Amino acid sequence: MRLKMRLLALGLLLLIGVNLKGQEVDAPKREFRGVWVATVANIDWPTKGVWEVDKQKKDLISILDEHKRQGINAVIFQIRPAADALYAKSGEPWSQWLTGAQGKAPNETFDPLAFAIEECHKRGIELHAWFNPYRATFDAVSAIHPTHITKQKPEWFFSYGGKKLFDPGIPDVREYITQVILNVVKNYDIDGVHFDDYFYPYGIKGQVINDAASFRNYNYENITSIADWRRNNVDRLIKMVSDSIKHYKNYVKFGISPFGIWQNKRQSIEGSETNGGDSYHGLYADSRKWAKEGWVDYINPQIYWSFESSPAPYAKLVDWWSENAYGRHLYIGHGAYRINDPKDYAWKDPKQIPNQIIYNRQNTRVQGSIYFSSKSLTTNRLGVSDSLANNYYKYPSLPPVMLWVDSIAPYNPQNLLAANTGKSIVLSWKQPLEAKDKEPTYGYVVYRFENGDTVNTEKASAIKNIYYGDITSWEDKDIRPGNSYTYVVTAIDRMKNESEYSIPVTILVEEKASIGKL
């Protein structure tokens, strides 16, 4: 036992970024590092009661700058909290959380989604559009706009817990929701479509889901159990959305973040060794099936518990999901909002989240993390943001590739040049030749190696910049006189397949301006 513990401690030491000689070890070059930016009830953005567009833009830029500093490479941006919209090209009314009243447009031409996409891509951050597919109202007191779908099609909804929810058993409902999502896929340069854990509602004592009429009218497959019929309704939506996204834009990723427990072992022999609520029976969401059938590109279970949790230990759930992702990407949802929770001593330990990252990296079937929510990181609870920025996410990372979508890399950039201005080095290059699959170049990765270091683009520490766009230049302001720097640039496509690197260029930093020699 002592030997086993020592080996485990050694493994953790290596994984946190130190080798046996005390030297720094690179973090993974490929890792999904996401954060949810929640707009419902103004959780993260925009600030409640502040409706000026300039202020909202500045606040969002500040949030994205901080997440960039933390090493985050994906933002899960909530654009449809309750059959409403935080984007301009929508048939649904503007969200009350953007302007203070549902249906009220911003004071000037402002499309939050388009703005967020542009600002994310400048920073090498993916944007996944987060939809709540079934929630139609958030509370009983909000003023509902006359154009809201609950006013137009009241027969599509049931009330539960003071909210109105779409009835997933009605075929026209599933078609409507799919078209809402496709409208965004077609009209915006998003990187992904994202659902969270809300399907059928979480159970409330004394409440009943009033869908008996739908069960009678739309049970075309003659399913005997209403529970199985509800699960089938959710399955049908997931498959419809998946097929539709891939038909129009195959490169747009589709991911779902289900409740962390699929089923407990007491409910199914295939379930996890846990004892808590579940998505299969509780929400009629067969979340494991969606990965098994290949309907999603990534599954993102919300494992919002600590290692020490008795009903649902973090490690057991990560292990279970890693055995049940069926080759799709597995990103773990972390409960960053629980950090410093006074009701749970485990979350008062500043090492809880770092240890979860370490545990994930031990498992090759886990490709990354997503944190709920943005404010939990930007407020730096128990130093978690500094821990990410200075240690675990110190170096930039590319999202992992999805070879089942696209496995063909671009060609490398051409004619890389470097010029010393005296205060910086300016790089410029030409776009690559057209890729074999005709996919256009989507962005670039700039690497730098100092004082004769061997060019090795697998080293995350060598990455100086990642961005998405067609700009073919970059300025390195972090230079020191007397040092020589070797640069290479690679091209990436939409799915982040990476080219071979360009012909290297080396430049010695002198006081006077000079042109780098190949």
Largest sheet: 8 strands, parallel, barrel
Count every beta strand, where a strand is a DSSP E run of 2 or more residues.
Answer: 19
Mean pLDDT: 93
The helix count comes to 14
Q: Give the low-pLDDT segments.
A: 1-25
Q: Helix fraction?
A: 25-40%
> Could you tell me the radius of gyration in angstroms?
24 Å
Kindly describe this structure.
The protein contains 14 helices and 19 strands. It is α/β, with parallel strands linked by helices. The strands form 4 sheets. An 8-stranded parallel beta barrel has the order 1-2-3-6-7-8-10-11, surrounded by 5 helices. Helix 2 packs parallel to helix 4. The protein is globular. The termini are far apart.
Question: What key attributes describe this structure?
Answer:
518 residues; alpha/beta; eight-stranded parallel β-barrel
Task: Give the gist of this structure.
The protein has 518 residues and is α/β, with parallel strands linked by helices. The protein is built from 14 helices and 19 strands. An eight-stranded parallel β-barrel has the order 1-2-3-6-7-8-10-11, surrounded by five helices. The chain has a four-stranded antiparallel beta sheet with strand order 16-13-12-19, with no helix packed on it.
Summarize the SSE layout with pairings.
Layout: H1 2-15, E1 32-37, H2 53-70, E2 74-80, H3 96-99, H4 112-122, E3 126-131, H5 149-152, E4 157-160, E5 163-166, H6 171-187, E6 192-195, H7 212-218, H8 226-248, E7 253-256, H9 279-282, H10 287-292, E8 298-299, E9 302-303, H11 314-322, E10 329-334, H12 352-362, E11 368-371, H13 374-378, H14 384-392, E12 414-420, E13 425-430, E14 443-450, E15 463-468, E16 473-476, E17 484-492, E18 505-508, E19 514-515
Parallel strand pairs: 1-2, 1-11, 2-3, 3-6, 6-7, 7-8, 8-10, 9-10, 10-11
Antiparallel strand pairs: 4-5, 12-13, 12-19, 13-16, 14-15, 14-17, 17-18
Helix pairs in contact: 2-4, 6-8
